């Protein structure tokens, strides 16, 4: 499997970038829907997504062998697990709008992760 085409970046920095990407997505989402950033909303939204992401990253060894396959598997499993955990914690498993939240979260989380990883790689290349 082909390795990701980014310059070498330490695994801890890639993991931090992924966490920042998911946290940034969450902050923008919370502010756009609530008009504010209450800490409880961050806990309700960010923690399940981060937990799902990093659990999947561990399972697929994303930071040990950074391949496109590992990244896509982490995204395809970790984000839905996080969305499911969030819905369960909030008592929203039976709400139809959770599907829309899942689709939005899948699309935008991947965009954010790729964007932040690209920024980190470009910054590292300039060093």
What does this structure look like?
It is globular, with a radius of gyration of 15 Å. It is built from four helices and no strands. With 127 residues, the protein is mostly helical. It has one domain. The mean pLDDT is 91. The two termini are 28 Å apart.
Summarize this structure briefly.
The protein has 127 residues and is an all-alpha fold.
Q: What is the fold's blueprint, element by element?
A:
Blueprint: H1 11-34, H2 39-59, H3 68-89, H4 97-126
Gyration radius, in Å? 15 Å
**SS-based structural class?**
mainly alpha
Average residue-wise pLDDT: 91
Largest sheet: none
For the secondary structure, the number of strands is 0
How many domain regions? Answer: 1
**What low-confidence regions span 5 or more consecutive residues with pLDDT below 50?**
none
Could you name the key traits of this structure?
127 residues, mainly alpha
């Amino acid at each position: 499997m082909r390795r990701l085409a980014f310059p070498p970046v330490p695994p801890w920095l890639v993991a931090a970038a992924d966490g920042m990407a998911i946290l940034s997505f969450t902050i923008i989402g919370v502010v756009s829907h609530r008009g504010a950033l209450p800490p409880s909303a961050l806990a309700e939204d960010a923690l399940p997504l981060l937990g799902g992401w990093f659990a999947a990253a561990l399972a697929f060894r994303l930071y040990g062998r950074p391949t496109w396959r590992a990244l896509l598997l982490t995204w395809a499993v970790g984000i839905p697990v996080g969305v499911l955990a969030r819905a369960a914690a909030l008592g929203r498993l039976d709400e139809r709008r959770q599907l829309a939240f899942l689709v939005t979260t899948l699309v935008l989380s991947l965009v954010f992760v790729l964007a932040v990883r690209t920024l980190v790689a470009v910054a590292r290349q300039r060093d």
